[in-house]
């Protein structure tokens, strides 16, 4: 049995696992309500405009879905940057995610729990950006995994909230953060 585990290609499995996590984490977008596309997602929206004419599935996308697709594209660029040591690509995609996180389309629900999810996501992206700027691959990879987990957790919360009629309900999946925690906590791998 141990020979089997030794024969596995760990980086490839990690890539597949993280990509699938990101894809399934954004799957809820397919049922989102129409909304305006922000300036943060315009490059992706313009790129997808030509594709929409040819692809009937893309023609059915709402502006919020286009916005979330741009977020997923940035996630993919980060993963690609991690796999190829392209730190500038990671920083650029992280910058775009931070810009998008301030757009109106980002705030699909009002309330303190959703706000905490968004804040935690921004912290993870900022940590990723700092680690990528320092060219610390292991720390950036850990920050990427944390970013992906916060994204999936938030999407899970949003789906549950939408099922409850957009009423923010308490959730057990949210980790309470101390109020004194800095915006970008120190990552032990970054040292």
UniProtKB/TrEMBL annotation:
GO terms for molecular function: electron transfer activity; heme binding; iron ion binding. It comes from the Bacteria. GO terms for biological process: electron transport chain. Transmembrane segments: none annotated. This is Cytochrome C.
């Amino acid at each position: 049995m141990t020979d089997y585990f030794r024969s596995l290609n760990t980086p490839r499995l990690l890539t597949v696992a993280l990509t699938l996590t990101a894809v399934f984490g954004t799957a809820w977008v397919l049922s989102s309500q129409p909304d305006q596309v922000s300036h943060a997602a315009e490059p992706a929206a313009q790129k997808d405009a030509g594709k929409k004419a040819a692809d009937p599935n893309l023609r059915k996308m709402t502006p919020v879905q286009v916005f979330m697709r741009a977020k997923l594209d940035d996630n993919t660029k980060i993963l690609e940057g991690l796999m190829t040591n392209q730190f500038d690509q990671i920083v650029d995609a992280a910058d775009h995610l931070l810009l998008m996180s301030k757009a109106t389309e980002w705030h699909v629900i009002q309330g303190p729990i959703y706000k905490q999810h968004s804040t935690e996501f921004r912290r993870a992206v900022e940590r990723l950006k700092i680690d990528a700027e320092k060219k610390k691959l292991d720390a950036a990879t850990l920050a990427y995994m944390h970013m992906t987990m916060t994204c999936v957790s938030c999407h899970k919360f949003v789906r549950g909230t939408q099922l409850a009629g957009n009423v923010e309900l308490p959730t057990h999946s949210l980790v309470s953060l101390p109020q004194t925690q800095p915006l970008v906590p120190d990552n032990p791998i970054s040292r």
